[in-house]
Amino acid sequence: MISISSNLNIMIKAAEKASKFIIRDYGEVEKLQVSKKGPRDFVTKTDKQVEKILIEELSKIKKNYSFISEETGKINNSDKENIWIIDPIDGTTNFLHGIPHFAICLALISKKQIISGLIFDPIKDEMFFAEKYKGAFLNNRRLRVSKKSSLDDCLFSSNHEGVKYSDLNMRYSGCTSLDLAYVASGRLDGFFHNHINLWDVAAGALMVEEAGGIINDISKFKINNIDIRASSSAINDQMLKNLSNF
What we know:
Layout (H helix, E strand, L loop, with lengths): L5 H27 L7 H22 L3 E5 L3 E3 L3 E12 L1 H5 L6 E8 L2 E9 L4 E6 L3 E4 L2 E2 L13 E2 L2 H6 L4 E2 L4 H10 L4 E7 L1 H13 L3 E2 L10 E6 L4 H7 L4
Parallel strand pairs: 1-3, 9-10, 9-11
Antiparallel strand pairs: 1-2, 3-4, 4-5, 5-6, 6-7, 7-8, 11-13, 12-13
Helix pairs in contact: 1-2, 5-6
């Protein structure tokens, strides 16, 4: 039985509650795809509704913690050393087009360190989570990064710029948090992206680290302009050399 903190327990319950609304609305988005109006306005409302639920649930027990959220921005409460990081739907464009690859993304920063992270894919019912010094897990199964040692055998992910830049074996999924979770689980071997937001990468960065991978120091960047490099330890030096001009 995995022992988790009270903070992570709150995060799991909040994500599970919010996911019910995402799954319900995702069914409607699929129908709206073929309408003349399209689903964009509907998805914006879903994003905000899911964020509202997450903030409410996280605030029930930890009433004084502050927030940084994609939709609302910063919410400064009395405790500014403990900060919830929220992305209600990472992979919104996928959601918007009825593509089942998106996630709820939550993290907790305490005294400037990411100590808990959760990435929940509600369509596949995959709950990735990690706590500092306690490991990374998928639905209670311990995660480990890939052990491949040759770049030719590896699979990487990035955004459209990264895919165009590199001659590595690449994928572009449109959901950063799941890309990082997949690196942590060994499905992908590495991920890189420039100028990305904290709420997209906070949970996944901890996850990769706790699964035995290597990630650059994202704390030195501004919250909305982060360059991230994450991979298994076996190929990290090779990947960084390949990306030296990216």
